[in-house]
Request: fold
Amino acid sequence: MIRVIIPFHLHTLARTSAEVKIEVVGPVTQRSVLDALEARYPMLRGTIRDHVTQKRRPMLRFFACEQDLSHEPPDTPLPDAVASGAAPYFIVGAIAGG
Reply:
């Protein structure tokens, strides 16, 4: 099981806790994790990635094992600690303002 930490506004929308556990079939990549997350919580479709381009929404960042993965290709394998469930995959809402 993959552990995913999602920001407050998204876990409120999905009516779940901040940490969810999802099953990923095949290689554990950002794409496969997000596909599984959206399949389990369809109300999140389009909130994390654009519907058409599948690119990350500008105000969200992805982290795992203290690494910013936001600009990594979506099919790059995630760290083994995430794939084993030892470490979570974080979806973090960016902070902006002025």
